[in-house]
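Submission checklist for the structure archive. All mandatory fields must be present; incomplete records are returned to the submitter.

[x] Identifier: SAM-dependent methyltransferase
[x] Organism: Actinocrinis puniceicyclus
[x] Residue count: 278
[x] Sequence attached
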Amino acid sequence: MSTADFDRAAHLLGEGVPPSRIHTDQPSPARIYDYWLGGKNYYPVDRDVAETILAMAPTTRAGIKENRAFLLRAVERLARQGIDQFLDIGCGLPFSPNVHEVAQSVAPNARVTYVDSDPIVRAHAQALMQSGDPEHIAVLHADARRPQEILEAPDTRRVLDFDRPVGVLLVAVLHFIQSHDDPRQIVRTLMNAFPAGSCLVISHGTADFNPAGVLEATGSYHATSSYVPRTGAEIEELFLGMPLVEPGLVPVAQWPDMTVPSRAEQFGLYAGVARKPE
C-alpha cells in the first residue's frame, strides 16, 4: 500500500483501539489485521472497518500480507543461523504459521515471548498456549513504549535466556511510536538487555516512495493519526549503528532477495535486520 494508504488505515485503526477490556461492539486493530490476513477471529464491526479501509486503499491487504511474509522469512533465516529464541513485540492475533511454528520447524526447542498491548490478543492466545508447550511460549499483555516492563516480566524471564542471543522482532510497530516516546531509546533498552549475536528485525512505514501521497495524508489525518512515517535514514538510525545484514535496509518485499520486484510505492515499507556485534 502507498504511505498515504497506510496513514489512512492507521487513522481508522487508531479510532478503534479498545480500552483495557474486550468489547465486541468496537473495532480492534488486531482483529482487523486478522480479517485482512484471512483469519476468523473478528466481529462484524471489525469487518466493516476493514472493508472501509480497503475501499479507500485497495492495496492494504496485500501490504499487510507482504509485511507478514517478511517477518516469517526473517525468523526462518535467523533460526537457520542459530538463533532459537525470539521476542515478538506487537505480535497481533495468532495466525498460522506463527513465529514459534516457523522457528520450531528449524529449531524444535525454539522459544518465543509474544507481546501485544491489545487485550484481545491475550484472550485468543490462551488457545495457542494450551496447544503449544508453555515452557517454550509466553504471551505478555504489555506496551512497546515501556520496554523495561517487558524485559522484567516473569514470563519473559521464564521463557528467554538473557545470556544467549535473542531475535528482537519490531515488525510494523515503531511507526506507531511517536517521536516524544523516543523509539531509539526503546530499541536501545531492548538490545542492551541481550548479548552479542542478538538480532534486531524491523519493518517500518516511510514516505520515501510516495512523498506527495504522504503529504496529502499528513494534512488530512495528522491531528488524529498515531502513524509516524520515517525516512530511510531515520529508520536506519533505529538500528543504533548495529551492522545491517545483507541486503541492508530495503523495500519490504525485497528482503532478503533484491531480485524480487520492490513494489515500494504500493507498500511503503522498509525492512531490515541487524546483528549486535561483539
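[x] Structure attached
Curator remark: The first strand starts at residue 85 and ends at 89. The first helix runs from residue 3 to 15.
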